[in-house]
TrEMBL record:
GO terms for molecular function: aldehyde dehydrogenase (NAD+) activity. Keywords: Oxidoreductase. CDD domains: ALDH_CddD_SSP0762. This is aldehyde dehydrogenase (NAD(+)). The active site is at residue 244. It comes from the Bacteria. Belongs to the aldehyde dehydrogenase family. PROSITE patterns: ALDEHYDE_DEHYDR_CYS (PS00070), ALDEHYDE_DEHYDR_GLU (PS00687). It comes from Cupriavidus pauculus. Its EC number is 1.2.1.3. It is an enzyme of class 1 (oxidoreductase). It holds the Pfam family Aldedh. Residues 14-469 form the Aldehyde dehydrogenase domain.
Length: 473
């Protein structure tokens, strides 16, 4: 049984003032595997105070000092990769291959930020002036459970690269990962107070950071509903705010696409991270005339999709993170059926032969129209919709007919044509014939998928204010 009863403030592991005990579960078995003692608003205040004390000196460190520090942080998290993988599988249920990617990603974001920082021009000449990029201040970083270790290190990497100090509020459901990451970063010899990690509930610790007068910058990843509330509160003090929110990403299969390749890509895009991915390609758009052939390709590609024990190497889809999430996904499957969509794979309940654990049957609906609930709302589970379009203009119109705009996928035999279609999609990222992430490219949403960008130069600039100094030679 794990017992996590320390948070990290001012360079030390301390007992929180908060005393709520939160159960951690193994979602593959539904067993309680440990407890986390949650921080409260008093702890949030102490963490902000530590970050504030550290800011004047840290914000004046040289970029080279911070490059070296980020490289030490990278090494330290990399050294704990196996422990991190174990934590991700145990408390989140990611299939082992995905969990390995997540554990590696958590260290790589630190190395990537160091590389960007090494060449970043903090000072430039514009007109007759000097333009200086200046760290904003104390950053509040709020992260969700679906890739928590990577969100913690990714947001910290950008904030610290810029010269900000930070307080991280991870999801209360990620206690094990947070513990491994915090121990690793503690070993990296970072000046005290520069980063603080305070696990607690969103409506206590999260809300305290959002309202805190000494927090100058917020970076939040999570649901669109919570993001809107954060933006409202942040407006009171005009905190600079980055929001990475939900998505309902289209996968546009153009009429020249190889259908076997398209079906494989659509399943990879849709079922990534067990469907618990903001960037999941959940609306598959296929030409009307090719629907039957595409359905056949997709059903045959489903043979490689396995929901089950995350420790089994053949598993591609693990359990949902919680019973609440499992219930949510089940409800959407029922809604899809009730609204007249046609199941071509999966359905309600657990996969055959699985008696416990929050496992969902990998589900694909066809005959979906873009006004159906399952085409409009983010499900956050392995439930995909196939929609048809008449021609390219219709495909683009359906793709853009969504409140979201985080990511889109285009599949075509003709990269130039796919590139042209990509240019007409309203989304922060459009992936042509690939599902691969590019850590140098900006990431973030159009419309209700968010505000601002993360990763690369764009990610660091989200933690910088632009200052012009006029009258200097
Ligand atoms: P959530 O919005 O409930 O919680 C996210 C984080 O915010 C958690 O740490 C939570 O404790 C905190 N929080 C909750 N209420 C808060 C409040 N009032 N004030 C401050 N903080 C608060 O989301 P979740 O259920 O943890 O994660 C799933 C959602 O996250 C999905 O909608 C998904 O699309 C989104 N997501 C987006 C991205 C992205 O980069 N765009 C990535 C992953 C997940």
């Amino acid at each position: 049984m794990h017992r996590i009863d320390r948070i990290y403030i001012d360079g030390a592991f301390v007992t929180p003032h908060g005393d709520e005990r939160f159960d951690l579960f193994n979602p593959a078995t539904e067993a309680v595997i440990g407890h986390v003692r949650l921080a409260d608003a008093v702890d949030a205040d102490l963490a902000v105070a530590a970050a504030r004390r550290a800011f004047p000196a840290f914000s004046r460190t040289s970029p080279q000092m911070r490059v070296d520090m980020l490289r030490r942080m990278h090494e330290a998290v990399r050294a704990r990769e196996d422990d991190l993988l174990e934590a991700i599988v145990e408390e989140y249920g990611a299939p082992a291959s995905r969990a390995r990617w997540m554990a590696r990603h958590a260290s790589e974001v630190l190395r990537d930020a160091a590389a960007v920082l090494e060449n970043y021009p903090f000072t430039r000449r514009v007109g007759t002036s000097e333009v200086v990029m200046q760290p904003i201040g104390v950053a509040g970083l709020i992260t969700p459970w679906n890739n928590d270790a990577g969100f913690i290190t990714g947001k910290l990497a950008a904030a610290l690269a810029a010269g900000c100090t930070a307080v991280v509020k991870p999801s209360e459901m990620s206690g094990l990962q947070t513990q491994v990451v915090t121990e690793a970063l503690h070993a990296a010899d970072v000046p005290r107070g520069v980063f603080n990690i305070v696990t607690g509930r969103g409506d206590t610790v999260g809300a305290a950071l959002v309202a805190h007068p000494d927090v100058a910058k917020l970076s939040f990843t999570g649901s669109t509903a919570v993001g809107k509330g954060i933006l409202r509160t942040a407006a009171e003090s005009l905190k600079r705010t980055t929001l990475e929110l939900g998505g309902k990403s289209p996968v546009i299969v153009l009429d020249d696409a190889d259908l076997t390749q398209a079906a494989t890509l659509a399943l990879q895009a849709g079922f990534m991270n067990s469907g618990q991915a903001c960037i999941a390609g959940t609306r598959i758009l296929v030409p009307q005339a090719r629907l039957k052939a595409f359905e056949a390709s997709l059903v045959s590609a489903m043979a490689d999709v396995r929901a089950g024990d995350p420790r089994d190497a053949a598993t591609t889809i693990g359990p949902m993170v919680s019973e609440k999430q499992w219930q949510r996904v089940q409800r959407y499957i029922r809604v899809g059926i009730a609204e007249g969509a046609r199941l071509i794979a999966g359905g309600e309940g657990r996969p055959a032969g699985i008696g416990a654990g929050w496992f969902v049957r990998p589900t694909v609906f066809s005959d979906v129209t873009n006004d159906m609930t399952i085409a409009r709302e983010e499900i956050f589970g392995p439930v995909l919709s196939i929609l048809t379009y008449r021609d390219e203009a219709d495909a683009i119109s359906i793709a853009n007919d969504t409140p979201y705009g985080l990511q889109a996928y285009v599949v075509s035999a003709d990269p130039a044509r796919a590139r042209e279609v990509a240019g007409r999609i309203d989304a922060g990222r459009v992936l042509v014939n690939t599902v691969a992430h590019d850590p140098a490219a900006p990431f973030g949403g159009f419309k209700q998928s968010g505000l601002g960008r993360e990763y690369g130069t764009y990610g660091i600039e989200a933690f910088l204010e632009t200052k012009a100094v006029l009258g200097v030679a």
